[in-house]
Amino acid sequence: MTEQDMVLTTRIRLARNFTSYPFPAKMSPDQKRALGTAVAQAVENANFGANRLKVISLESLKEWELFALIEKHLISPEFAEHPVGKTLICSEDHTISIMVCEEDHLRIQIILSGLQLQKAYELADKIDDLFESAIGYAFDPELGYLTACPTNLGTGLRASVMLHLPALEGQGALAGLSATISKLGLTIRGTYGEGSEVTGSVYQLSNQITLGISEQHAIQNLEGVVRQLMRQEEDMRKMLYSDHPQQIEDRVWRSYGVLQNARILSGKECDRCLSDLRLGLSLGILPTVTPDTLRTLADQTGAASICVAAGSLLQPEERDNRRAALCREILSK
Amino acid sequence: MLCEKCHINQATTHVKQNINGKVSEMHLCSACAAGLSVNSMFGGGLFGSQASILGSLFGNQISDNRQESQVCPNCGTQLHEISASGRVGCAECYRVFRSYLQPSIRRIHGTAQHAGKIPANKESELTAEQKLKSLREQMEEAIERQDFEQAALLRDQIREAEGKGE
After folding, report:
1. Touching check for A17 and chain B: CB below 8 Å?
2. Contacts of residue B95 in chain A, CB cutoff 8 Å?
3. Is A215 an interface residue toward B (CB < 8 Å)?
4. I want to staple A32 with a disulfide (CB 3.0 to 4.6 A). Which of A85, A138, A226, A331 is the partner?
């Protein structure tokens, strides 16, 4: 079993503010627009390989386009709630996203697939340096980078790893683990950040403390716990499969059958089936399905992504029909 | 004279405030002076009901001192707003309200001393002790990733810095 079988993505987020304006909650729409322009200028000539950055005014987007950005974790639900004056800068491959005027002036975010905390941090750090030299940050020698919410003071770093933990979840082992995890200064929660419901056994593990702990320590600490969780999940998967091979195979093939044949497919059911397919792939049960196929399914079957593909806001029933058709099409290739 | 807060209207009110024994005076227009409402000066007693979960982290410290009028001169945020929302208004708020915020910050993070990245242009503002702490951490990290060459360089820098301190 490899890392990719359990880790979906790695995310790094840096919260930063400038001295030139009050924090976003106290800014006028015009001030927000002006800051968006200044930030865009600072990265205008930046070169991140073939990764061109595009500047998007949030006000110009339709509702479902905003939802699609949330679905892809490029923006937070809070950022989309009041789009007036806000700017998003993101790379074409969606690796880099910079939210201007979320809770803080800047939220620099890097998303990479698999477990790549160090690499993601290095990229965030590089972008951070650009703004530092161009605009100048609000910083205090004792409190570190100053942020609107004191829980982000210090490094302003939130490092998180999206883990697929069906076996630990199924055995009810996560409740006990989360108590231990919080003692280590980390948090485990559902896929879309704070307070969200868990779908498809995907959990987000992230650091909680940002003051008094350096970026490197926070990342190493997180990576250590991620690796432990991965080992436990792997052991549990193997144990489950060797104890109940018939049941596990039935569960995986049944979900495969649903995705291949369903005519109506809700988002929740789709997530659950995808989770089973992932599990099956890691145990060598599904010889015909590749990790790429799974990624394509996950990327395209979100409610907002379906609306974007259709170019209009669809009703739930219509989305469920299209989702089913999409899965049949992808799996028939 | 123009209002010192909005810099738009004529100042008509002279406000004197005492924050932790530090007395400051401001000349404000009637609109900005109204922002320093009597209610906030003497504490409306609403903290309990309004405070969000996060805001309640500050509640205790703030309610003890609510008789003082507390407004950030930079962004106009009042202390009770911070208590209710759990968010400060601007970078300056951390300086103005530091004594109220610090105990909560300690409770959240277990410390109130930053470790890690420092903007290049802010390094000169650090105290010798903070610089030493940062160097020691960098050395530990270098050792952990087995970059002994870098660790030796940092060790020399630490020795030099310690020598200066004595």
Report:
1. yes
2. 140
3. yes
4. A85
Residue B118 within a domain? no
Selecting from A143, A155, A157 the residue whose C-beta is nearest the C-beta of B112 gives A143
Number of domains in chain B: 3
Q: What is the pLDDT of residues B96-128, one digit of tens each?
A: 999 889 998 998 898 888 988 998 877 766 677
Average pLDDT of the segment spanning B66-83? 80
Rounded Cα gap, residues B20 and B8, in angstroms: 29
* Residue B31 shares a structural domain with residue B73: no
Number of domains in chain A: 2
Tokens at B56, concatenated: 């309640």
Q: Given B64, B81, B109, which residue is the final one in a domain?
A: B109
pTM to 2 decimal places = 0.78
Domain containing residue B4: 1-47
φ, ψ for residue B75, nearest 5 deg? -120, -5
Q: Is A85 on the interface with B (CB under 8 A)?
A: no
Please name the residue that has the structure tokens 């403390």: A209
More confident residue, A61 or B21: A61
Asked if B42 and B60 sit in the same domain, the reply is no
* ipTM for the whole predicted complex goes beyond 0.90: no
Structure tokens at A102: 């979320």
Residues A234, A252: contact at Cβ < 8 Å?
no
Q: Which residue has the tokens 């105990």?
A: B103
Q: Is residue B119 part of a domain?
A: no
Tell me whether A24 touches chain B (CB under 8 Å).
no
Domain around A182: 3-234
- Using a CB-CB cut-off of 8 Å, the residues of chain A touching B101 are 150
For the record, the structure tokens of B77 come out as 């945020």
Q: What one-letter code names the amino acid at B26? A: M
**Which stretches of chain A drop beneath a pLDDT of 70?**
49-50, 190-198
Selection from B62, B93, B80 nearest residue A153 by Cα: B93
Select from A234, A262, A281 the last residue of a domain: A234
d(CA A294, CA A274): 7
pLDDT score at B17: 56
Pair A143, A211: CB distance under 8 Å: yes
Given a contact cutoff of 8 angstroms between Cβ atoms, the answer to whether A283 and A241 are in contact is: yes
Q: A171 with A73, same domain?
A: yes
Pair (A204, A315) in one structural domain = no
